[in-house]
Write a structure and sequence with these properties.
Elements (H helix, E strand, L loop, with lengths): L1 H28 L4 E5 L4 E3 L6 E5 L6 E3 L2 E2 L5 E4 L4 E5 L3 E9 L3 E11 L3 E4 L3 E16 L2 E2 L5 E2 L1 H4 L7 E5 L2 E2 L3 H13 L4 E6 L5 E6 L2 E2 L5 E2 L2 E16 L5 E4 L15 E8 L1 E6 L7 E6 L6 E4 L2 E3 L2 E5 L13 E2 L9 E8 L5 E11 L10 E5 L2 H7 L3 E2 L5 E4 L2 E10 L2 E9 H5 L4 H11 L1
Parallel strand pairs: 1-9, 24-32
Antiparallel strand pairs: 2-7, 3-6, 3-8, 4-5, 4-7, 8-9, 10-20, 10-28, 11-14, 11-20, 11-22, 12-13, 14-15, 14-16, 16-17, 18-19, 20-21, 21-27, 22-25, 23-24, 26-27, 29-30, 29-33, 30-31, 31-35, 33-34, 34-35
Protein name: Stage IV sporulation protein B
Organism: Orenia metallireducens
InterPro entries: PDZ_sf, Peptidase_S55, SpoIVB
Amino acid sequence: MKKYKRVVVINLLLLLICFLSLPRVLIFLGLPDNCQIFEGNKTPLKINLPFNVSIRSNQQGNLKINGQKLSQHELNINLSNPIALQASSVGEYNLDFKLFGLIPLRKMVVNVLPQVKVIPGGQAIGVILKSDGIMVVRNSYIIGENQQKYFPAKEADIEVGDSLLEVNHVEIKNKYHLARLINEYGKKGESLRFKIRKKSGEVQFKEITPIKSKDGFYMIGIYVDDGATGVGTMSFYEPKNGYYGALGHMITEANTQLKIDVGEGEIVRANISGINQSHDGLPGEKLGTFFNGQGMLGNITKNNSFGIYGRLSISPKHPYFKEAIPVASPLEIKEGPAKIYTVLHGGEIEEFNIEIEKVRRQYEPAEKGLIIRIVDSRLLSQTGGIVQGMSGSPIVQDDKLVGAITHVFVNDSTRGYGILAQWMIMQTDLLEKNVAKEFAS
């Protein structure tokens, strides 16, 4: 009897575990709790579960599943075949999936977004980003006139990743300005009252007495930086309003790898003068030249995990795209051939063949949604694969922008990651503007 009860308890526990883990299993198998599609596009949702379900919605609208308009009446489908989702208007639809028409299986929200069209990029750009505040990148010490070590910044609890905003109510313009202010106040025998922003975002004030070094300069014992510059690639731009996205990954401070908060920044035209080829274990790079303020293309207003964003002051020309093309939803992208656009010489955009090897199931914004491989012999002969500076190169498949290259595999320079274009588009105001336009009409 005891053995029988133990078996019953174990079975009940197993059923409970299965029930609690069911949502994650369903997402893994391809039945998410939410998904996003673009208005007008027929979008396949591949689930591959070997049973029939019924779907219904309490909302009236224009969402169709497998060509049939969804309503309060149950729609029976087999999940072993792809589901074709299509809607002719923007909106949000709540769906109820039931197994055998009785057992609740999943609630899913289908968010229909307005169709967005952009021109793929490929232009080589110089990125000039100034941080919002002066970043502390390393703690150090001062050897004073008496040859003793002093740690004034550390003792004031100023840490790596903090940003220095003001000293004695004077806004700090750059790292050289900071050094000058510290030395000047030190000569006057005045202490320093710093306004700082901690890594958490909290603003604090710290009092520090600068120390005169053995070399005769007043210091506080930190290394700082105030921005970054480099060469990258524009991913897309929208010709009417000038919104653009580039790089597909965050710009970080070189020493700490911490995000640089945008103070001000700009992108300018860059000229590619040469290529250091990639080799397995050693990524190559584009050698580019550009100058601050020369050939300015636009500003930088956002820097995050999905790239840099802003608005263009001029609309660049593109040799392959005279008109804007649609952005693909994650569900529309498939494994197979695609094209990328990037600059290898001077400022001329060229087209190259790649293979999309894997499309990761992402139903919410995330990085590394694609795994791609360079198959173009001409590109491989000149670069060895993906090189630094190629980040942001747009990926186009079936006349739609599907993503942008972001990272190279260190052990295989012919392969790398890409970010899905939809997640980049969501970092701009394009969707909001199109939604407002949709409802206004």
